[in-house]
Structure formats: structure tokens, C-alpha cells
């Protein structure tokens, strides 16, 4: 039995779908099992007892802790419960750059501490470190539909934007296959793209020009109510603007034996959300 945490989110829902399609017994963990059509269990990373119930008779788990200051604490709590319950394998969704930062206020540092809980657990482990998800662009959908320019905090800084379906497929390979123990997969798309590049590809998909407008990082961060999130976002934007995440890898090809999906194809598949 595979346990999928974060099962109602972007990656977890696709992992759930892929496992069901492959006929692999799996259980979705969520704070609200009523939201899930298939087998599901109540679980909250802040409630150890619920985690103990969720891991019963589980052999492998997808560990997806939601973004926030509690990533490492949630990872530690889950790993501790899983190890005691006899779970054999954990596949953690982390973030690209997690190996390079010790700063607890940025995403890499938050995930880095969580990774150490997983890699030091004595269990089989795989770390999946995705680049920026293509689906983050859905946050621009209303702006694009209104014919407004997309706010750009990252200048011409490029990233290997990745289709979440590829992240989920790599995670499923690690959960169900062998040869992934002790591996760290930095999962990216095939192209280095800036925000204006993404706007151009969304525009091509919907058949009209989509512009961007530069917004100073401090100004954009000031609009985020949660101070911890605002700080992490500001650090992330500065890092990207300085080309810190201008990275493309072959992880999808290496693990799945096929090329990664492009942002262009994601935008075509998703054009209805942008009014196309
Ligand atoms: N977006 C990016 O560009 C990007 C890039 C690299 C890495 N990441 C990492 O990817 C992860 C986010 O993945 P995602 O976008 O697939 O997630 P998501 O769509 O934001 O979904 C979050 C999931 O977490 C669950 N959840 C929230 N609070 C919980 C709690 N207290 N206990 C148990 N479950 C809880 C939610 O389930 P319920 O509400 O049903 O309980 C939901 O399934 C984060 O760790 C983030 O740092 C994101």
C-alpha cells in the first residue's frame, strides 16, 4: 500500500491518478477525505496521531508537505511516525536548490532541513527537487483574461519551468520501481524561460499578445499578508532574477526514458484557463 500525502494538491492528485491507472493499491491522505473519490484517510501533519493511523500497513509514501515555515517540522514528524510503523520507502517532494541553502527563511533552506530528516531516517529514500511549476502561471489567468499585463518580479531571469505531470511521473517511478534509493532528482522542463518568455508562449496558445510589466520585488512582497511567505517570495524572486535558477536537467529523460514536457505544450493544454 502506497500513502500519498498532499494528495488533493497539484502533484499529489496526479500521483493518485497515475497509481490508480496503473492498478497500484494506494491511499490518499487529506484533512478532508470527503474531497477524494478513491481510498482516502484523514491526516494532518500537525497531528501525530492522525499520521500514525494514516501510515498503517503502508510500504511506501509520497511525502509532500505544503509550502510554509513548517515544512521541516512536518517532514520530521512524518518520517518519525513512518519509521516506527515499518514504512520502507519515502519519496519526498522538495525544491530545486534545496541542497545549496541553509537559510531557514528561503524555500531551499526549508526543504533542505526536511530532506535531512528523510535521508537520515534509515529508510529507503528518493528526493525529487522540482523547478518552478508550470501551473504557477495559472495565477496569471484572470489578469490575462482581463487583457492586463502579467506582473514580472524576476526581470529576464530564466528557469527550467516544469510540467507538474512530469514531477508526478518521476515520483511514481521512484515509489513503484527499484534503483531510486539514495537518488536526488532535480526535475526541470526542457527550456530556460523568463516570465516574458512564458507570457509569449501563453499568448501564442490563446492567439493574442500577452504583455508583462516589471514590478519591484519590495512592492510585490509588501502585498503578501504572511510575513514569512513574503520574505521567502522576495528571496526567491531575487534569486531567479539573478539567473540563480537558470538550470535545465535530464532527470525526466533519465528516469522516464522520454523527454520532459515543454511549457509551450502545457500552455496549449491549459489555454482555456487563460481565455483561449
Ligand atoms: N509551486 C512550485 O513552483 C514549486 C516548486 C518547487 C517545489 N514546490 C514544493 O511543492 C510542494 C507543493 O506541492 P503542490 O503544489 O502539489 O501542493 P498544493 O497544490 O499546494 O497542495 C497542498 C497539499 O497539502 C495538503 N495539506 C495542506 N496542509 C496540510 C496539513 N496541515 N496536513 C496535511 N496535509 C496538508 C493539502 O491537502 P488537504 O487540504 O486536502 O488536507 C494539499 O493536498 C511544496 O512543498 C513546495 O515547496 C513547489
Classify the secondary structure makeup into a structural class: alpha/beta
By CATH, the topology is Rossmann fold
Low-confidence stretches: none
Distance, first to last CA: 41 Å
Shape: globular
Which strands sit side by side, in order, in the main sheet? 3-2-1-4-5-6-8
The count of helical stretches stands at: 11
What is the CATH domain class? Alpha Beta
| Largest β sheet strand count, sense and barrel closure | 7 strands, parallel
DSSP E strands, number:
9
The overall pLDDT, averaged over residues, is: 97
Helical proportion?
A: 40-55%
Pfam families: NAD_binding_10
State the main characteristics:
single chain; 276 residues; alpha/beta; Rossmann fold; two-stranded parallel sheet; 11 helices; 14% strand; binds NADP nicotinamide-adenine-dinucleotide phosphate; NAD(P)-bd_dom; NAD(P)-bd_dom_sf; Ergot_Alk_Oxidoreductase
SSE topology sketch:
Elements: E1 2-4, H1 10-22, E2 26-30, E3 40-42, H2 48-54, E4 60-63, H3 71-85, E5 89-93, H4 107-119, E6 124-130, H5 141-145, E7 150-152, H6 164-176, E8 183-187, H7 195-206, E9 212-214, H8 217-221, H9 227-241, H10 251-256, H11 263-269
Parallel strand pairs: 1-2, 1-4, 2-3, 4-5, 5-6, 6-8, 7-9
Helix pairs in contact: 1-6, 3-4, 7-11
The protein binds NADP nicotinamide-adenine-dinucleotide phosphate.
Domain NAD(P)-binding: 6-176
InterPro entries: Ergot_Alk_Oxidoreductase, NAD(P)-bd_dom, NAD(P)-bd_dom_sf
Amino acid at each position: 500500500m502506497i500513502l500519498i500525502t498532499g494528495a488533493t494538491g497539484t502533484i499529489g492528485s496526479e500521483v493518485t491518478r497515475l497509481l490508480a491507472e496503473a492498478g497500484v493499491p494506494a491511499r490518499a491522505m487529506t484533512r478532508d477525505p470527503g474531497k477524494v473519490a478513491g481510498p482516502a484517510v484523514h491526516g494532518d501533519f500537525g497531528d501525530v496521531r492522525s499520521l500514525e493511523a494514516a501510515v498503517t500497513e503502508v510500504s511506501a509514501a509520497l511525502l509532500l508537505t505544503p509550502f510554509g515555515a513548517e515544512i521541516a517540522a512536518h517532514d520530521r514528524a512524518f518520517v518519525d511516525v513512518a519509521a516506527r510503523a515499518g514504512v520502507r520507502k519515502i519519496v519526498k517532494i522538495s525544491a530545486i536548490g534545496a541542497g545549496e541553502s541553509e537559510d531557514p527563511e528561503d524555500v531551499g533552506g526549508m526543504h533542505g532541513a526536511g530532506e535531512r530528516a528523510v535521508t537520515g531516517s534509515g529508510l529507503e529514500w528518493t528526493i525529487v527537487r522540482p523547478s518552478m511549476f508550470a501551473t504557477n502561471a495559472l495565477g496569471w489567468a484572470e489578469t490575462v483574461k482581463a487583457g492586463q499585463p502579467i506582473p514580472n518580479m524576476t526581470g529576464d531571469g530564466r528557469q527550467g519551468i516544469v510540467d507538474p505531470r512530469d514531477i508526478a511521473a518521476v515520483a511514481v517511478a521512484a515509489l513503484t520501481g527499484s534503483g531510486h534509493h539514495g537518488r536526488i532528482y532535480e526535475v526541470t522542463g526542457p527550456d530556460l524561460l523568463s516570465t516574458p518568455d512564458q507570457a509569449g508562449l501563453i499568448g501564442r496558445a490563446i492567439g493574442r499578445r500577452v504583455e508583462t510589466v516589471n514590478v519591484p520585488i519590495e512592492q510585490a512582497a509588501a502585498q503578501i499578508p504572511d510575513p514569512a511567505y513574503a520574505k521567502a517570495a522576495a528571496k526567491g524572486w531575487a534569486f531567479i532574477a539573478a539567473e540563480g535558477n537558470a538550470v535545465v536537467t535530464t532527470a525526466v529523460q533519465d528516469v522516464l526514458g522520454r523527454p520532459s514536457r515543454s511549457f509551450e505544450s502545457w500552455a496549449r493544454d491549459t489555454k482555456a484557463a487563460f481565455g483561449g
